[in-house]
Amino acid sequence: MGKSAAENDTLHARFDREFITENFLLEGGDVLPEVHIAYDTYGKLSAEGDNAVLLTHGYTSSHHMIGRSISGIAEGSWNSLVGPGKAVDTDRFFVVSSNMLGSSYGSTGPSHVDPVKGTPYGPDFPDISLVDIVTAQRALLEDLDIDHLVAVIGNSYGGFQAFQWAVTFPGFMDGVVPVTTNIKGRGDNTPELIARFEKDPHWHGGYYYDHGGIDDSMTQLRIETLINYGYREYLRLNFPDPAALDAEIERIARQWASEFDANSLITLGRASARFSVENELSRISARVLFVLSRTDKLFPPSLGSEVMAKMQKSGVEAEYFEIDSELGHTAPALDGAKWAPRLAEFISQLLTQ
């Protein structure tokens, strides 16, 4: 079932739609009584249902990847890549942008009320995996009468999802575009996150919802993340004064901290730590365009040759592209023009294969 809270005629967009399914079995054996998946759509589904593209978003961003300006989201804002006449042409394709299970932007996650207990799950939210995330997305697509995709495209954590899609549902798409990402997670940072949050007097073991929140702790964490992502370089043109630049980064970080749930950080962090398709690459039948950014500190371009060699050894038809940008991890979104032609070319190749 679905709903739409807002629409945009230029993009043929429907924002903040919601898919609901019940008794969702997780890979680990737990069952979520009810799962909500928030999503946006852009463009129109063809009568044959053969023009769908799935966008998958980053760790701390949302499904609002185009059509809206959410200044706290460093990985989002794909407006240069998706839209009428752009690389992912919404006059041609029906684009589904799905918020992932466990996130903080409308999909079921730790801040949602446990229907059994009547209180937020908090740290009691069950462990989820990348398999669970993409399985929930597949259920959403099936509800939209989509049984095949032209491509799955996502950056960072969204790239994990793209690779997981290619392995878990190998016949479901023609191509995948994992961007600024890897075939396995970066390690488990959740013990450090929890130790950090425990210093906040409002944390209460993660049951902080009735104790004033931990916005200050989340703001400081976000400031560090934005700087690491390369956001300082992006903002410097508009904020040449260092003090003004710092103030703008703090403003963006504080806005995000008011929206994002700390327990989602932990839930998704644990899922990413367990993520790996390194030993399952031979399952991939879709074509792959693997994209990294020259200045990315999180997923440096040195990963390119290693991942490409492993995919080619496994028989994967894969191509590599490196974004020549100074914007680090944010380059795919904020320097989209640097790789939009390659993305458009890849999608065109998928349609003629």
What is the gist of this entry?
With 353 residues, the protein is of the alpha/beta class.
Sequence stretches where pLDDT stays below 50 over 5 or more residues: 1-6, 70-75
The radius of gyration computed from the alpha-carbon positions, rounded to a whole number of angstroms, is 19 Å
Q: CA-to-CA gap between the ends?
A: 34 Å
Neighbour order of strands in the largest sheet:
1-2-3-7-4-8-9-10-11
Nearest-integer average pLDDT: 93
**Topology pattern, helix = H, strand = E:** EEEEEEEHEHEHHHHHEHEHH
As a percent range, the share of strand residues is 15-25%
Number of strands: 11
The CATH architecture of the largest domain can be given as: 3-Layer(aba) Sandwich
Number of helices: 10
User: What level of helicity do the residues show?
Assistant: 25-40%
CATH fold category name of the largest domain: Rossmann fold
Basic shape? globular
Give the CATH level 1 class of the largest domain. Answer: Alpha Beta
Q: What does the largest sheet look like? A: 9 strands, mixed
What count of domains describes the coordinates?
Answer: 2
